[in-house]
Design brief:
This protein has 82 residues and is mainly alpha-helical. The protein has four helices and no strands. Helix 1 packs across helix 3. It starts with a helix and ends with a helix.
Length: 82
């Protein structure tokens, strides 16, 4: 169990950076809500600026690509229903 919010935020950041993880997958891995992941990423800016910038780049990339992932999920859904 994580002792402080700062530690959890740093662990989340490392996980997201190492895995290129989405907010949803990070939340699932740490068993916390997506809003907590977002909040911790915002807090990270105060604790560790360099980690925050790296995480922000990954989350922005994921946000730009989310429509593609959604389209692929829909395609898989209809391909499997045949």
């Amino acid at each position: 169990m994580v002792n402080t919010i700062e530690e959890r935020a740093c662990q989340l950041a490392v996980y997201i950076i190492e895995n290129g993880a989405t907010v949803r997958s990070a939340a699932k891995h740490f068993r916390i809500s997506k809003s907590t992941v977002h909040k911790d990423c915002q807090r990270l800016e105060q604790y560790n600026r360099s980690l925050y910038q790296q995480v922000r780049q990954i989350l922005d990339k994921n946000k730009r690509e989310r429509h593609i992932r959604g389209g692929m999920a829909t395609r898989r859904k209809y391909m499997n229903s045949r």
